[in-house]
């Protein structure tokens, strides 16, 4: 039965494998390989190789006979070793010629030749050679199995595995590795469970397979079952947790490791860097260098370079670059990843001279990612002309190149150029449409953004969550409740699951549009809330004057274990200010620095001034300002002047606040208007007239207030005292008619 299966298998191999032979070229390997794979050839080896390359077989045979070891066993061993050296250096055809002229061979010789074919990926030759072998052992079968599995031909590898007369642990491990690489984790686990004997490599392969495919929980089960995990096992688990975003657990395992090598340190440094913990990555690198005297490798430096790009410290970045040069990692950059990461780092930091130098030095190894980094770097520092020149010069542009340029023009308000690029983009995807919509919203072209969204859907492009988020944010900013509801309804029809970002956008939109109940409805149904969720709800209640509700949400936030930030306190202090919760506001303000180590900022101080002023404590508000640890600016004195009109008017404080404010900003319009109104409210009309004359001399004019409504998709804007609208008379007569009826 086994012979029949093997014959059927052999037929399928010969019919399916069509790899052609490589041309024999003198002293040139038939496949490319890393330098680390080469074995040094001696002078005698090179002479024999030269003869074989030129088909001078008699001369080659003579050189073989002159080799010092003369016993039968020694001759076979010596010739087989030479054959292996040729194969490992890529001279597979010469190795085969040597094999043919060898007078004696054994199974090791056959396996060496088979291994040479497999390593240079000449699988058709390998299969033909395997079928012609007079004797096969477990090494022969395993070698062919590895070749097929590594080439991704997993079904044929499985056939070989099934008909193997004997299997060792390497055979089992090779089958598991092949299945994992082809994404068949369930089948790999089945083979792993069937293994009669498992080595450390077996466990490590299966655990690494789970971690690399994001199945960290299953990897952890195996890890806990493993009797003697080694440094490879621990490192796989650390890397797996970091890849899954659970950096805390990864770091916990890293600290539990009894033995760490440079790969372990690099895995943890990379875990910190790729998850945004840039400072922690740099600190861990310093610990590795200082306490453990380990030399970082290229992978370590690549992770650190991205950490420096994220942290934004140019001096640290340059020091790291110097370390990289000292360690010669830039000269051993065979795949160009170090240079690519350096270009990215300097582009992120805006140091474009350095980025350009590295880019030019590696211009022969063209990389679209580096071009995109350069383009984004120039855009980041406002040099759009250089970005455009590079964009025009590069031989290949991808979607990132196009969308980067489009976004760059939107950032500087050049909407026409952005639209021109978009219209000429060869392959427009959902990201490009989202950039266009976002760019129009950013430039306050909301109607055009809505039209683009409709056009996007008409062309059959499915909107991203970020597309909806941009449009919902725009609806909130313009208080377009109806349009916001339409986007929400469309979301419910097209999206099966809302992500956190979308839910937060909806809360903010409904709160800004006055539908605070709808905002709270979404908030209360959330299964997970982040800091933005809590802050959005607190700010929403605050803007609607619902202080008690805002405080309840704040208490629930603390109970959930979420730490507040400065935005949280801005919302809660604002809520206390609007409702006159003087004592509670003071307590919260003090708790910022005392309990949560959040230094009060300018906005918090303005809230406290409003809080004290609304409570009728204007003089206390002035004392609060004079005790501030920084020099008060226009917003501080403006806030104090603004609260002087609440309750009993304190003209002394008002004059002092106005004096300090006008010293900082002599043409400040609100200061003049508020002071005029204060004089008028206490009957000081002479002072009011003098101040209004002064405003005329200074040409200080208040910008009239405005409001708008959205009717049938078109916004109607009305300014104070505006009679430009064609239906102005009818609107005013209607308003006055309602007013008369009310009276």
Helices and strands, with pairings:
Blueprint lengths: L1 H15 L26 H11 L3 H9 L6 H17 L3 H10 L5 H13 L3 H10 L5 H13 L3 H10 L5 H13 L3 H10 L5 H13 L3 H10 L5 H13 L3 H10 L5 H13 L3 H14 L6 H14 L2 H13 L10 H13 L2 H10 L6 H13 L3 H10 L5 H13 L3 H10 L5 H13 L3 H13 L6 H13 L3 H14 L5 H13 L3 H9 L6 H13 L3 H13 L6 H14 L2 H13 L7 H13 L3 H9 L7 H10 L7 H14 L4 H13 L3 H14 L7 E6 L2 E6 L8 H15 L1
Outline the structure in words.
The longest helix is centred in the N-terminal third of the chain and has 17 residues, at 72-88. The protein has 743 residues and is mainly alpha-helical. The chain has 42 helices and 2 strands. Helix content is 69%, strand content 2%. Residues 1-39 have low confidence and may be disordered. The protein has a two-stranded antiparallel sheet.
Strand order of the largest sheet: 1-2
Using DSSP, what is the number of strands? 2
Largest sheet: 2 strands, antiparallel
Query: Shape from CA axes?
Result: elongated
Q: What structural class do you assign from the helix and strand content?
A: mainly alpha
Low-confidence stretches: 1-39
End-to-end Cα distance? 106 Å
The radius of gyration computed from the alpha-carbon positions, rounded to a whole number of angstroms, is: 37 Å
């Amino acid at each position: 039965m086994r012979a029949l299966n093997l014959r059927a298998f052999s037929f399928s191999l010969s019919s399916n494998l069509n790899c052609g032979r490589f041309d024999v070229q003198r002293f040139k390997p038939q496949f490319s390989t890393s330098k680390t794979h080469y074995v040094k050839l001696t002078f005698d080896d090179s002479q024999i190789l030269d003869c074989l390359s030129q088909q001078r077989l008699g001369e080659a045979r003579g050189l073989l006979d002159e080799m010092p070891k003369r016993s039968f066993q020694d001759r076979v061993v010596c010739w087989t070793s030479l054959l292996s050296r040729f194969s490992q250096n890529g001279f597979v055809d010469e190795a085969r010629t040597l094999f043919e002229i060898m007078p004696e061979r054994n199974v090791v010789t056959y396996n060496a030749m088979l291994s040479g074919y497999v390593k240079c990926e000449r699988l058709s030759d390998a299969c033909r050679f395997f079928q012609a072998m007079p004797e096969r052992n477990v090494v022969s079968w395993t070698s062919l199995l590895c070749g097929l599995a590594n080439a991704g031909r997993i079904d044929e590898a499985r056939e070989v595995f099934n008909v193997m007369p004997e299997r060792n642990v390497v055979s089992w491990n090779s089958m598991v590795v092949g299945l994992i690489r082809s994404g068949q984790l369930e089948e790999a686990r089945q083979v792993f469970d069937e293994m009669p004997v498992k080595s450390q490599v077996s466990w490590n392969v299966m655990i690494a397979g789970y971690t690399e495919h994001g199945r960290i929980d299953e990897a952890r089960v195996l890890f806990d079952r493993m009797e003697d995990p080694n440094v490879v096992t621990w490192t796989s688990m650390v890397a797996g947790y970091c890849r899954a975003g659970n950096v805390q657990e990864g770091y916990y395992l890293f600290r539990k490791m009894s033995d760490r090598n440079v790969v372990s340190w690099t895995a943890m440094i990379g875990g910190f860097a790729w998850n945004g913990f840039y400072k922690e990555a740099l600190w861990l690198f310093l610990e590795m260098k200082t306490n453990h005297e380990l030399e970082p490798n290229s992978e370590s430096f690549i992770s650190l370079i991205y950490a420096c790009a994220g942290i934004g410290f140019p001096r640290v970045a340059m020091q790291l670059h110097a370390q990289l040069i000292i360690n010669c990692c830039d000269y051993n950059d065979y795949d160009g990843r170090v240079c690519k990461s350096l270009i990215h780092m300097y582009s992120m930091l805006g140091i474009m001279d350095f980025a350009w130098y590295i880019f030019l030095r590696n211009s022969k190894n063209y990389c679209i990612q580096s071009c995109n980094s350069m383009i984004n770097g120039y855009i980041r520092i406002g040099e759009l002309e250089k970005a455009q020149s590079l964009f025009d010069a590069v031989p290949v542009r991808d979607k990132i190149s196009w969308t980067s340029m489009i976004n760059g023009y939107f950032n500087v308000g050049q909407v026409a150029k952005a639209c021109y690029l978009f219209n000429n983009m060869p392959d427009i995807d959902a990201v490009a449409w989202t950039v266009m919509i976002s760019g129009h919203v950013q430039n306050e072209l909301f109607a055009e953004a809505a039209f683009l969204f409709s056009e996007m859907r008409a062309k059959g492009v499915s909107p991203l969550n970020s597309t909806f988020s941009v449009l919902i944010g725009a609806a909130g900013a313009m208080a377009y409740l109806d349009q916001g509801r339409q986007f929400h309804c469309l979301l419910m029809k097209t999206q099966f699951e809302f992500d956190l970002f979308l839910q937060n956008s909806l809360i903010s939109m409904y709160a800004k549009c006055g539908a605070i109940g709808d905002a709270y409805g979404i908030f209360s149904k959330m299964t997970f809330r982040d800091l933005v969720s809590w802050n959005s709800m607190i700010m929403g209640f605050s803007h609607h004057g619902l202080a008690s509700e805002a405080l309840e949400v704040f208490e629930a936030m603390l109970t959930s274990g979420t730490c507040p930030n400065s935005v949280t306190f801005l919302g809660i202090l604002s809520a206390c200010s609007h409702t006159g919760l003087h004592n509670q506001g003071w307590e919260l303000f003090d708790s910022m620095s005392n309990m949560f180590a959040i230094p009060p900022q300018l906005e918090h101080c303005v809230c406290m001034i409003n809080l004290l002023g609304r409570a009728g404590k204007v003089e206390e508000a002035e004392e609060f300002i004079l005790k501030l640890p920084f020099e008060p600016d226009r917003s501080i004195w403006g806030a104090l002047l603004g609260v002087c009109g609440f309750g009993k008017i304190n003209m002394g404080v008002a004059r002092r606040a106005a004096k300090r404010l006008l010293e900082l900003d002599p043409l400040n319009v609100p200061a003049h208007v508020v002071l005029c109104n204060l004089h008028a409210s206490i009957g000081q009309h002479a002072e009011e007239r003098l101040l209004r004359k002064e405003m005329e001399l200074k040409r200080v004019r208040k910008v009239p207030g405005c409001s708008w409504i959205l009717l049938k998709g078109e916004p109607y804007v009305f300014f104070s005292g505006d009679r430009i609208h064609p239906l102005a008379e009818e609107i005013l007569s209607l308003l006055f008619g309602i007013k008369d009826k009310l009276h």
